[in-house]
Write a structure and sequence with these properties.
The structure is a single chain. Helices cover about 15% and strands about 30% of the residues. It is globular, with a radius of gyration of 18 Å. Strand 4 and strand 5 form a beta hairpin.
Length: about 180
């Protein structure tokens, strides 16, 4: 019995150590990316992916979208200063479930998973989402109002006990300080 328990604990350790740090969502960091990462560096980090500047054919670039090999958006980066590719980043919106926090939260997680693993510091409504503020990782998590049985443009206060555990995450915004 002790041997089985030892093997089990050792396997958990290997899984934790094997977690890909390039895909880790942490406070002020997404893998190798941090506040001072430049857009030029993003081009090198995501050389296998496609990066699109938005708005297209505009002189003022507000965001940089990263698409995976299947053409799906995975990340959207917002520079600290619009149209400046060397000043660093303000935030990144994470759409891909490949990126995950140390506590196992990704865009494929539910509200119940978030509430079980993190303290929700504040909840604010937007036109189409309920926005959860998670100060521990300096992130906000957007939930679709449809999953909460709320009307899209309803800006009424949202309490944590109103949100069903099954509510899905639309995206995670990681803010860089």
């Amino acid at each position: 019995m002790k041997r089985i328990l030892g093997i089990f604990l050792l396997s958990i350790l290997f899984v934790q150590c094997g977690q890909d740090s390039d895909l880790l969502i942490a406070k002020n960091q997404l893998g190798k990316i941090e506040k001072n990462t430049t857009i030029d560096q993003l081009d090198k980090i995501f050389k296998k992916d496609s990066i699109e500047k938005f708005p297209l054919e505009s002189e003022i670039i507000r965001e940089y979208r990263v698409f995976d090999l299947e053409g799906k958006p995975s990340l959207v980066f917002f520079p600290l200063i619009e149209n400046d590719s060397v000043k660093g980043l303000e935030l990144v919106k994470i759409y891909s479930d490949d990126y995950i926090t140390e506590k196992g939260i990704s865009t494929s997680s539910s509200f119940g998973d978030v509430a079980e693993n993190y303290s929700i510091d504040k909840i604010e409504p937007s036109f189409s989402s309920a926005i959860l503020f998670i100060n521990e990782i300096n992130a906000t998590i957007s939930l679709n109002k449809e999953d909460l049985n709320l009307e899209e443009f309803d800006m009424s206060e949202i309490r944590q006990d109103q949100i069903p555990d099954e509510a899905n995450i639309k995206f995670i915004s990681l803010w860089f300080e």
